[in-house]
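Please review the protein record below. Tell me whether the encoded fold seems credible here:
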Amino acid sequence: MRDAGAPRTPHRLGRSWDFHALRTAPLHLFDANIFHPLTGTLAFSEDMLGAELLMLPADVLFGDPVLDRDVLVFASFYGAGP
């Protein structure tokens, strides 16, 4: 039976690492905990760091992945201009 917490999608798990690294050790952002002995393993995939920087304040304040995505969508509309 699934828990009622945040969805466990690969995209959400990747963002979880990025948010954790940005909060605790930003200089080691790309040293994700996959392929353990190797360093810089986050660079093996798309990290969406620019989008995550827009979502980070909402994630810190509310911790809601749906709100994080909504903030990203509205910020992209605003950034696209008229």
Notes: The chain has one domain: 10-74. The chain has a mean pLDDT of 76. Residues 21 and 29 are 5 Å apart (CA to CA).
